[in-house]
Design a protein that fits this description.
Mean pLDDT of chain B: 89
Largest sheet of chain B: 8 strands, antiparallel
Strand order of the largest sheet of chain A: 2-5-1-6
Number of helices of chain B: 38
Order of helices and strands of chain A: EHEEEEHE
Largest sheet of chain A: 4 strands, antiparallel
Largest interface: A-B, 20 and 25 residues
Oligomer: heterodimer
CATH class of chain A: Alpha Beta
CATH topology of chain A: Alpha-Beta Plaits
Strand content of chain B: 5-15%
Low-confidence stretches of chain A: none
Distance between the termini of chain B: 79 Å
Shape of chain A: elongated
Distance between the termini of chain A: 6 Å
Number of domains of chain A: 1
Strand content of chain A: 35-45%
Shape of chain B: elongated
Low-confidence stretches of chain B: 833-843
Helix content of chain A: 10-25%
Structural class of chain A: alpha+beta
Strand order of the largest sheet of chain B: 8-9-11-10-14-15-13-12
């Protein structure tokens, strides 16, 4: 079982959700985040004054999937979120040791 | 004076003296005596040579109230409809001399109609006397003017305030007690002046107070008659205007009033006992009136402890146009409308149709002014909605009353969501969280924020149907705009905002705002900064009103970034997008052109100007510009100066030359004009169009009939080189009168940018707005050998925001050129006069 954490452009969230939906993945967490990667933001000018836009608004999409479909999920996310420009985001794959359902206390099978 | 008049007055005095001696010269006797003096004045008026203008005589003070005692002053106002002149003086002599000759103490006030135009706060006593003015004889028109003047809110409020102060001062002189052993029946607490004061207070605030006094009307009438009878005896005995009921006089009064008793002392005790009983009634009635008297805040409107209410409910019921001022007064004073007033409107509102709430142009202007975003607007609009007024004034809004639209994010009914957008906007006036100041600055910068509120009020009215609501909202909004008879440009703006109210949230939250094409398309949609700011604010408050947690700081940041990128596209990049043959707007412009303008006239003028030009100006304005540009020759200045609302606009067409912008701005500044906004544009043929909106703070154009011609003449003289504006402007800049104080100085922002435009170096300057700022900056630019093709001028509070599109030798400035320009501008803006002088010497 893996936690897939994708940092994507805000306008790409719906497409990523649709792509995951096609893989029958319906459970996910979407969070508004700010950050920067290698591009480290940029300088903007408003009314003659320069200011640094270092932390860019992004969306984090997190979902836990079984090991067997990890690659398929990663491909789907990349395909949906990619524009080819700097700032398209990242996908992280993190191993999950155990998972429990809070309502019943049951342990999910790995 | 004819002998018969003498005899009549003498007979009247004899009669009053006899009544006073018998202790019966109370109210009725004094009124009768006043009437006979009236007759005398009228007789003199008729026989006097009439002046050239209208004239009217008013009885003031006690005479106005018909309470003339034997030796009372005869207070009169002689009001002239125009300048008094020699004939007027002759008239006054003929009127007043005979009155003095027969021994009447005439105190006269002479005024011209113009004197009533402004309240004379330095003379409260006169205004109080005027409050009792009684028309005697003369021009009915002047009678009506005085009545209208006294009925206006400001004089009434002033009467109340002055009266309160004078009562306090007068009572203090008597140690604030009516229980004086030798009372002044006129001035002491509980005396005749107190009776007059309580009636004046009630009349100026709420006449119904007189029916709720602790003493009934008969008791007060009896007190008044008693005090007047005593006063008449005092005048008779003292043979002068004597009002103190001294120990000696008390005995005479008791005797003349026929008080029983075996001794004078017993008689006096009885009369004084009655005096104190009456004085106590008067005193209590005055205290009650002072405590309960509301403050006049408008026509038929007063402020009470519970809020704003109508004075005369019956009148209010039949005057629906007076209902909005009720809510306006509540906002102005930061208090609610009383439940009683809301109940009245609720009961009556369905009798009236929309147009009846704003039938006249002034009423319609008041509707718009009411919608200015400020604290209290949401609360008052909610009250108006709850009592049914909002829905009757705007039946379109009634269509969404309690309307439920089920979706995953809206948390409130459509009407409440709408009102919350307005609350969110009003709260921007005092930003509550970090990051909001930038949006607050946008709001402060709007030219017509009330149109944004109107747009918000109507943006979702189309949701009464389930289909595409923005289209339906626009259709319904048109009906409102039609009823309000808004100017075409305002209607277009409101329709634009409603029609596109979802577009910015879509672009900011669902598109990639890092994509320049997204920004370009959005800039194309909004066209000009004003619309961009309004749409940005509309989006902000609209999203925020959906639910408590939907507008996160993260989303605000996205919205702000789209705003900044679009703003930069509009202000920095517009010089690259020029009007050409393929421009859609040009074809329409040519098709609708008036017959006196040829196609080539229009093409020659507009082709090559930035496309922005067609977004900024209506076709009619463009045709006027084309007309101005006809047959223009070097050194010619074709200009039009017009008043637009509180501001003025000047449009100048001329041929480009060095220092042109600087000179034009210098001329305006030299007349004390404060440039608020403006554009300067140059077409490829070297034709320059300058359009400036400015405030005439010194009222030069208003006070000088030939002011416009003077400004236009100076423009021509300066542009042609006949006149050097610098010297005149320098004196003004150095004048103490024009130095602004109290504004914290901040370092000027000077920013050069060679990236935003393909053709130009963009120079942005933010500096404290001050007389001659634009002139000084553009002078430096020209001095540096730069050519100014485009200029944008804006103000935000005390800041001037200037954007110049410049070239040097037909190309963008080099790094060295930018550095030199920036350095010289810095010196000029920091006010280094020596350097500035040096520049002049080199020109």
């Amino acid at each position: 079982m893996k936690l897939i954490k994708a940092i994507v452009r805000p306008n790409k969230v719906d497409e990523v959700k649709d792509a995951l939906g096609k893989l029958s993945i319906s459970g996910m967490t979407v969070t508004e985040v700010r950050g920067h990667g290698k591009q480290k933001g940029h300088t903007a000018v408003y009314r003659g004054k320069e200011y640094n836009v270092s932390l860019l608004p992004k969306m984090a999409v997190e979902t836990v999937v079984s090991d067997g479909i990890v690659e398929e999920v990663i491909r789907a996310i990349i395909q949906a979120a990619r524009t080819g420009e700097i700032g398209d985001g990242r996908v992280f794959v993190i191993p999950v040791e155990e998972a429990y359902r809070i309502r019943t206390g049951e342990k999910d099978p790995i | 004076m004819p002998p018969s008049a003498f005899a009549q007055l003498d007979a009247a005095r004899q009669e009053l003296s006899a009544q006073a001696a018998g202790g019966t010269a109370g109210r009725i006797a004094l009124e009768h005596f006043s009437d006979r003096v009236d007759g005398l004045v009228r007789q003199l008026f008729e026989s006097a040579p009439h002046p050239s203008s209208d004239v009217a005589i008013f009885a003031l003070g006690g005479y106005g109230r018909r309470h003339l005692c034997l030796h009372s002053d005869i207070d009169v106002l002689v009001l002239f409809g125009g300048p008094i002149g020699l004939a007027g003086e002759q008239f006054l002599r003929t009127l007043l001399h005979p009155l003095w000759d027969v021994g009447l103490d005439v105190s006269h006030q002479v005024r011209e109609r113009e004197d009533l135009a402004q309240l004379d706060a330095s003379n409260p006593t006169f205004l109080l006397a005027l409050a009792d003015a009684r028309p005697l004889v003369g021009s009915p028109a002047l009678f009506e003017e005085v009545a209208a003047f006294l009925d206006a809110t400001e004089p009434r409020a002033f009467v109340v305030a002055s009266l309160e102060q004078l009562i306090d001062e007068r009572h203090a002189a008597f140690n604030d007690t009516p229980y004086q052993l030798e009372p002044d029946v006129k001035d002491a607490p509980g005396g005749l002046r107190d009776l007059t004061a309580l009636r004046s207070l009630a009349r100026a605030t709420d006449a119904a107070l007189l029916t709720r006094l602790p003493a009934d009307r008969a008791t007060l009438d009896e007190a008044e008659d008693f005090l007047l009878r005593i006063r008449s005896i005092l005048h008779l005995e003292a043979r002068r205007n004597q009002n103190v009921l001294s120990h000696e006089m008390q005995e005479k009064v008791a005797e003349r009033l026929g008080y029983p008793g075996t001794s004078a002392r017993q008689q006096v005790e009885r009369v004084m006992s009655d005096y104190f009983r009456h004085a106590r009634s008067v005193s209590r009635a005055l205290k009650f009136t002072r405590r309960m008297a509301p403050t006049p805040v408008g026509r038929n409107l007063v402020r009470t402890r519970d809020g704003i209410r109508f004075v005369d409910a019956a009148a209010a019921r039949s005057q629906p146009e007076s209902w909005l001022p009720l809510f306006q007064a509540a906002i102005d004073r930061g208090v609610p409308v009383t439940d009683g007033a809301l109940g009245l409107i609720h009961a009556e509102v369905n009798r009236y149709d929309a147009g009846e709430f704003y039938p006249a142009p002034a009423d319609r202007a008041a509707v718009l002014a009411f919608l200015t975003p400020r604290p209290g607007l949401y609360a008052r609009l909610s009250e108006m909605h709850d009592c049914g007024l909002l829905g009757r004034m705007f039946p379109e809004f009634a269509a969404i009353s309690c309307r439920v639209v089920r979706d995953f994010y809206h948390k409130y009914t459509v009407d409440e969501h709408t009102l919350l957008t307005i609350r969110n906007l009003e709260r921007l006036g005092a930003p509550s969280r970090p990051g909001r100041e930038r949006f607050a600055a946008q709001l402060a910068d709007l030219r017509a924020p009330e149109l944004l509120v109107l747009s918000l009020l109507l943006h979702d009215v189309g949701k009464w149907r389930d289909e595409e609501h923005a289209v339906e909202s626009v259709r319904m909004a048109r009906q409102v705009l039609e009823r309000l008879q808004l100017p075409a440009a305002d209607r277009e703006l409101v329709e634009f905002l409603i029609s596109n109210h979802l577009r910015m949230s879509v672009a900011a939250f669902r598109r990639d705002i890092d994509d320049p094409e997204v920004v370009r398309q959005f800039a194309e949609l909004v066209g000009v900064e004003e619309r961009l700011k309004m749409l940005c604010l509309m989006t902000l408050v609209d999203v925020e009103a959906v639910s408590l947690d939907i507008l996160t700081p993260w989303r605000e940041e996205l919205l702000w970034r789209l705003y900044v990128d679009t703003y930069n596209q509009l202000t920095l990049g517009y010089g690259d997008e020029l009007i050409d043959n393929a421009q859609g707007g040009l074809a329409t412009l040519l098709a609708q052109a008036p017959p006196h303008l040829s196609e080539s006239d229009i093409r020659q003028f507009v082709e090559g100007l930035p496309r922005r030009y067609l977004r900024l100006f209506t076709p009619d304005a463009v045709y006027r510009h084309v007309q101005l540009a006809r047959d223009i020759q070097p050194d010619h200045v074709h200009a039009v100066l017009e008043q637009k609302g509180a501001a003025w606009e000047v449009t100048v067409v001329t041929l480009d030359k060095p220092f042109l912008v600087s000179n034009i701005c210098g001329v305006l500044s030299s007349f004390g004009m404060d440039i608020l906004r403006g554009q300067a544009m140059t077409n490829p043929n070297g034709l320059v169009l300058d359009h400036f909106e400015f405030a005439d703070e010194e009222r030069f154009l208003e006070l000088n009939p030939d002011g416009r011609a003077s400004v236009l003449r100076a423009l021509e003289a300066v542009v042609s080189g006949e006149l050097d504006v610098a010297a005149r402007l320098r004196a003004r800049e150095q004048s103490l009168v024009h130095r602004r104080s109290g504004i914290p100085h901040f370092a000027p922002v000077i920013h050069c940018d060679n990236h935003s435009s393909r053709r130009y170096t963009i120079l942005e300057i933010i500096e404290k707005n001050q007389v001659g700022l634009l002139h000084r900056i553009s002078r430096v630019i020209s001095h540096q050998g730069c050519n100014v093709d485009l200029v944008l001028i804006g103000t935000e509070g005390e800041k001037g925001i200037l954007v110049f599109h410049i070239t040097a030798g037909g190309a963008k400035l080099t790094d060295a050129g930018q550095a030199a320009l920036t350095a010289e501008l810095t010196r000029a803006l920091e006010g280094n006069d020596e350097i500035d002088q040096g520049h002049r010497a080199t020109e």
